[in-house]
Amino acid sequence: MIDFSLTKEQEAILKSVREFCAKEIIPVATELDLISDPDETFPRVLEIIKKGRDLELSYMLIPEDYGGMGLDNITIGIIFEELAAADAGFAGNLGISNIAWLPLMIGGTDEQKEKWFKIATESDEDMFLASWAVTEPQGIGLNTDDVWETGQFTLNVKTTATKEGNYYRIDGEKCFITGGAAANLCVVLAETSEGPSHFIVPTDTPGFNVIRNENLMGHRTMINSALSFDGVKVPEENLISMDEGNGVSELLGVAGYSDAWVAAIAVGLSRAAYECASTYAKERIIGGKPIIQYQATGMMISDMSMLIEAARAMTWKALWINDTREEPDGKLSALSKVFASDAAMKITTDAVQVYGGAGYMKENPVEKYMRDAKVMQIYEGPNHLLRVLVSIMDYLGM
Ligand SMILES: Cc1cc2nc3c(=O)[nH]c(=O)nc-3n(C[C@H](O)[C@H](O)[C@H](O)COP(=O)(O)OP(=O)(O)OC[C@H]3O[C@@H](n4cnc5c(N)ncnc54)[C@H](O)[C@@H]3O)c2cc1C
Predict the structure, then answer these.
(1) Ligand 1 atom 30: the closest Cα is on which residue?
(2) Which of 66, 262, 280, 360 is the most exposed place for a label (fewest CB within 10 A)?
């Protein structure tokens, strides 16, 4: 019943991903991280992402019938781990492009899936990318007060979608949107008369604007932008599910899958930090012996291994359950994201400690890993919020 071995197909995909990382990402990850201006970094990042077109990593979950890879969650998870071990920012770029398809996968009608998935997979673009725009400058704040009694979450979405004949007009601002300036298509959450709803917006639609590219602390190869929607008109068929007001349940459905994917990215980043720290601790000689032989250092190294094994096991269980059930396991998926990202923060911080002063210097990779880790406790829902959500699920018996 329990089998942790990879299939031949998974081994083959991983080999291609590993080769792509070794050839295209690892040699430039540090250099790109050090560029101060995101407007300079992002076009170079996009060029590299497009070189991976043949791997089809931007639409891994789109079913084969629509020209996608139709991969299961476990396979997507191990690919994300591998990408993140090379560079978390690149993993984030491809992560969001897959996450953006989830509202359509979960709530879309057959006609909508047929249309948009084929547009993506049959595109002449070098690589068709999607973004998912939820967050807004004032904070959309998943309201967790009423839910204890009602079981219903509410959101404070200020971006509006107003019905005008056969069209919706979308107005508002979104911030911190991964892939924002690079994506061909943006799945945007906007308030309708019946509540928050997801809309598909091709990014060449008039009124869709990139306000600026963001300058990030870590994940500096992850394209991230503030966006404005200034009277963007989309046909009513672009409303996912064709019914207004399904945005919150689609959002929670997305998190049920994507939290475990993000957990896999955290495991990959942790693995990279651990490998550096472990090697350094064996090679660095102080007082006539390798520092791993000092118990405090050795125990940090074994704690890293322990956390990585535990985070991967929890992540794989969440991914496996999401492959075997009709509905994702939102609770376990959230727990795996919280555990793996908290573990990544601790492991990368300890990796800097193992290096001593050298760990604080830009020429060693561990300070980058520590910066890369921090956002994983924030994006895809801050860990505080996810912990609250899990306690609510417990209370409501979900
Ligand atoms: C690099 C990066 C990439 C991102 N990519 C995307 C993207 O592609 N698409 C997208 O839509 N968004 C994206 N985000 C936004 C991200 O999901 C949000 O930043 C995150 O959900 C937190 O929302 P906020 O920034 O508005 O923080 P706030 O809502 O202002 O929260 C601030 C803090 O308050 C606490 N808090 C808030 N609400 C609760 C609660 N209910 N219970 C307990 N604690 C709470 C948490 O500690 C939280 O960290 C990205 C963010 C970053 C930094």
Answers:
(1) 139
(2) 360
